[in-house]
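Worked Example 4.2. Read the sequence first, then its structure tokens.
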Amino acid sequence: MLDYNHFSRNSKALWKWFGTVKFSRDFLWGVCILTLVPLVSVLGAILVPYATTAFDISISLEQVWGVLGAFLFLYLFALGQRVAYDHKVIRKINIPAPKQIQNLLKTTTDREGFLINIELISAFKNSYPLSQTNLVNHVKEKGIEITAKRVRDYIVGLEELEIIHSPRTESWKKQYTLTEKGRWCYECTRRCFPKRYFWFVYRNYLGRKNLTQYPSRNQKT
């Protein structure tokens, strides 16, 4: 039996979501990317057998399914490719944070175009304190050709914007951890800069990032 209360709640939730969506060109393009090929494949599977009968075309169902299967395989293969974050792609990313933080996360190295600040923030994925030497080594392990001095400059920039913090100790060696803003940025990099193309379209074209609001104040830990 149909549960009208359940149906009503779902309808209101869906309508509320549509009210928050901005139907921009990117959003519509994202919908096309994720739905057009599957819809064409389903329609093809339904209509092609009728067309072959109506127009007396000698093609077997096995051949039809083979073509559609290959088409879908290439489509899924394309969605599973790694995203190449060049300047054109980076411009499409909308980060729900102050402009200064947007620019910080989109900063790339001059030569190779690596997202250097994202690489530094991602080094804290295990939540362990890291020294400048640890962060320099992390960047080198990623194959980014940049001097240790330049890496330290980026580290200082993260510290100035209160993304990372090193508590005062008697030791001269700084040990950095992510602040509340830094943890938000870490989560943002995972959601706004995904590795695979499917998630890039879902989160940046359709706007499904599910991020909390950027912290207005920082609680250093």
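Now turn to a second chain, presented in exactly the same format:
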Amino acid sequence: MPMKREDSIIKGIPEAYEVWDLDLTQDGQPACVLSNPANDGAEPRLMLGGDVLPLPPESPFRLGAPPFVVPPIVRWAGRDRVVLIKSRAHSDESNGWIVNRVGEVNHSFHAGDDVEEVLAK
């Protein structure tokens, strides 16, 4: 099936937030990781479809002193869940999470270190 690129607008992104990573379902439903670069104290968010949720507490993408966010990778894994991956990790820590549409972590795992891309089905 040929792919066609079209410009589109993702509605519902909170004011001052921007998209860090994005995946779309075949019918165009977004999964995005959002951050607020103007406010270091603002928590990153996860947008699934039209719902904006906090990132699960088990997925620590915010690091301290000074606070900054490690940009995660987000990929749809079916219609009702996404995979979140933190690119860098020690061998003894989880850096992958399966998250459902209400933002709950269903499973965590070690995805490896220096992850550049994720394929999920």
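Notes for the reader: The chain has no helices and ten strands. The chain has one domain: 18-109.
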